[in-house]
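Severity: low
Component: inverse-folding endpoint
Summary: output formatting inconsistent between runs
Steps to reproduce: submit the following structure tokens with default settings.
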């Protein structure tokens, strides 16, 4: 248990809040850059508003995208503007992440004021957890709050280093993420159904191996199923497969035969000639993919069987789409699974990333018990990996 922002002595003090404001951007009608999806900004509001209500002076820091050095197209300016609109308050944007001018702005904040630092990844030392950058960030505030669960699995200056210099607290979002994911990892209602998709077995092998003896059902979809098929000696045609994932699948398959959980692979597929929405399409009643074709979705029989198992789950965890859902011809499997998760009577938790995007795309984002803001972080946590951004916070 970590100290909570609820218990932070923040009144009249500057609070450095590591938020996850890494939102997609889009071009506005007037040529400006705008926030394309404000979900993560809204998820940060409860912690920001709690601090403001208690008279804190809030300094927000976040990364945005993957800039290489300073990149004006990835400035925090549109994020600060939208945050100000949602708060109904002026939100100042600092010209940099650290430095004398930033320090002066922070010192000039009044109780309840909010400012946003420039993109933390404009600083090379962010990803390197540079101690000098961490110390410079700590100089901006007297209290540190980490509310960026989506970045908590990374030991960066803003998620880990700065907590070595300031009393660290968990934000409201981070607290809820840990609570919900702990239910899956340590206290799941049975049966526990794990739904895992995406492209690489290597990204999820730790989760699969942990839950082979902890879950009741593990349902595999997405391109990662082809690594399992190739490991079994099946034909995969031009389907997406990488050698590392095949080796990982070869490790899992023998264990699955002796495990508590039933590991399910697709039994039918939807194929395409190319990775394109307008490609030639064919349904395959089987799993051996002919040459010249690639698997781009699970088939209707598989989707129906997965949906039935999800419906019977006491706890359901889903991370990773069942196919190339961004293209309508190959979205059916992911939609069926998404609808099953949304309609399940058990406790439902969806890992971030593409799974969250799919739920939102299908209008089901509000129909699950918890929609995590962190894809990689959620997988790491339920696997049992220590998250540097969490471990750096003070114990309660």
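Observed output (run 2 of 3):
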């Amino acid at each position: 248990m970590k100290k909570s922002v609820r218990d932070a002595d923040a009144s009249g003090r500057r609070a450095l809040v590591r938020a996850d404001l890494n939102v997609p951007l889009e071009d506005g009608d007037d040529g400006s850059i705008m926030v394309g999806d404000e979900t993560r900004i809204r998820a940060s509001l409860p912690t920001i508003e709690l601090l403001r209500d208690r008279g804190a002076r809030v300094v927000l820091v976040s990364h945005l995208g993957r800039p290489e050095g300073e990149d004006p197209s990835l400035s925090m300016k549109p994020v600060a503007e939208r945050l100000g609109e949602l708060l109904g308050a002026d939100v100042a944007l600092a010209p940099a992440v650290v430095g004398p001018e930033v320090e002066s702005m922070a010192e000039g904040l009044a109780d309840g004021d909010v400012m946003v630092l420039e993109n933390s990844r404009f600083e090379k030392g962010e990803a390197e957890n540079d101690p000098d950058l961490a110390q410079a960030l700590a100089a901006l505030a007297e209290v540190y709050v980490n509310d960026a669960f989506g970045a908590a699995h990374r030991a960066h200056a803003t998620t880990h280093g700065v907590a070595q210099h300031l009393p660290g607290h968990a934000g409201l979002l981070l607290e809820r993420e840990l609570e919900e994911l702990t239910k899956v990892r340590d206290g799941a209602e049975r049966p526990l159904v794990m739904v895992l998709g995406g492209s690489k077995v290597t990204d999820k092998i730790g989760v699969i191996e942990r839950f082979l003896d902890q879950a009741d059902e593990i349902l595999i979809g997405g391109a990662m199923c082809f690594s399992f098929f190739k490991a079994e000696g099946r034909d995969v045609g031009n389907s997406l497969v990488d050698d590392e994932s095949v080796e990982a699948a070869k490790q899992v398959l023998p264990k699955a035969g002796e495990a508590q959980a039933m590991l399910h692979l697709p039994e039918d597929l939807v194929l395409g000639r190319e990775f394109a929405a307008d490609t030639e399409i064919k349904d395959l009643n089987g799993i051996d993919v002919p040459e010249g074709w690639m698997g781009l979705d699970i088939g209707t029989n598989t989707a129906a069987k997965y949906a039935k198992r999800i419906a019977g789950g006491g706890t359901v965890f889903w991370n990773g789409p069942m196919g190339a859902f961004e293209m309508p011809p190959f979205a059916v499997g992911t939609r069926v699974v998404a609808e099953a998760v949304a309609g399940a009577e058990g406790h439902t938790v969806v890992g971030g990333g593409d799974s969250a995007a799919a739920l939102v795309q299908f209008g089901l984002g509000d129909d699950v018990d918890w929609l995590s803001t962190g894809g990689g972080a959620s997988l790491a946590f339920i696997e049992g990996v220590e998250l540097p951004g969490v471990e750096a916070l003070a114990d309660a």
